[in-house]
Amino acid sequence: MSSRTDADRCTVVVGCQWGDEGKGKIVDVLAEDVDVVARYQGGANAGHTVHVGDSEFILHQIPSGILHPGKRCLLGNGVVLDLLQFFEEHDALVARGIDLEGRVGVSLRAHLLLPWHRVLDRAAEAGAAEKIGTTGRGIGPAYEDKAGRRGIRVADAADLDRFSELMARGTERARKRLLALGLPLDGDDARALDEAMEQSAALRERILELAVDTGLEVDQALRAGERVLLEGAQGTALDLDHGTYPFVTSSNTTAAGAATGIGIGPTRIDAVLGVVKAYTTRVGNGPLPTGFDDEMDARMRELGGEFGATTGRPRRCGWFDAVLARYAARVNGLTGLAVTKLDVLDTLPEIGLCTGYRLPDGSTVTEFPADTWSLESIEPVLEMVPGWESSTQEARTLDDLPAGARSYLDRIEELTGAPIHMVSVGTRRTQIIHVA
Ligand code: GDP
After folding, report:
1. Fold observed for domain 111-211
2. pLDDT score of 426 more than 60
3. By alpha-carbon position, which residue is closest to atom 6 of ligand 1?
4. How many beta carbons lie within 10 A of that of residue 347, not counting itself?
């Protein structure tokens, strides 16, 4: 296997901003050197885009390690599994020639995301006074059912009678909820839900064939000396506890969530690699402290191709927020940073880094505040540095980079307090600098 040491045998890869940091590409690059890649939270709202040769793959639930032949890919108990979407993605990969035989495992403890969760998600968002900007894919309601102890787990599929009973009960409950929300399902919508439920139920045996105890499997892999990557979806600022609540996702995206979301103890994790974009983006609602004005926002969106992989939604853009990145370094216990999309800044004459937040009373804070609403009224304290105005795309070592780009990376390292281990300078696998 790999010649690297045991220091990072079990590594968590975690997003350190609002998601879309390019985790898919980093996991894809690292996957070459590991045996198992496991997703620990989230659902089909996350979309990783990975470029292999001239092909583009958008993965929603299956870890991006799947694009490396022979690697085992797991979905942990912390994931909410959309059966229809999962098999659609699974079969699409097979249709594109990816051999999945014996390579995908799903936790017996993972909760199922069912068609009614999508319907409830859209209804709740439509009726909400404070819109979260959800993707409408049912993730929130599926986690609500899990926490409410009425969810259906993969393990429940083992017993046909129990499974059918739980599915019928869940459908009935969803109908009542919709009625209570003043949005009763009727006509075509009711028929579409019934049909989708039947399609989901028909996948019972297929999902059982893939069902495993992911904690046990990862534990055994580590004991056998194999290398494991634990892959998160979304990012730190979208963590249910540590993000910009309520504009967050419904699970723990941060590194600690990897232990609970796979079923291993935190002491089994050796390294935590935080992924940050060289600037900041955010999709969905909620504050973005370093957000650009409209003109610069549109320019960066074009330069960085900042449109959602799952929904196509335009992302809002801003300068690199070192306050958030330093917070992410602490909350995740980062042992290293991967900086992505450095090349997107190649043409800019001047680049900003946010070192603090100026409050309306004139004082400045450098710790990320718990009060999400206070972020609406802060002014970012910006440090402007000269751009390098040349291409970084061909760089494969730090020395290949223009001096300005190196200084920019040094400053990111200084401000976040985490050492940079990787720098990504383009969408392709080869466009990567390994620092450590
Ligand atoms: P993820 O969910 O964190 O994996 O992020 P997304 O897949 O939503 O967004 C990352 C996008 O940026 C994808 O289209 C990647 O191909 C692209 N990308 C990743 N790294 C780089 C990079 O270093 N440079 C450029 N230009 N694009 C990148």
Report:
1. Adenylosuccinate Synthetase, subunit A; domain 2 (1.10.300)
2. yes
3. 20
4. 13
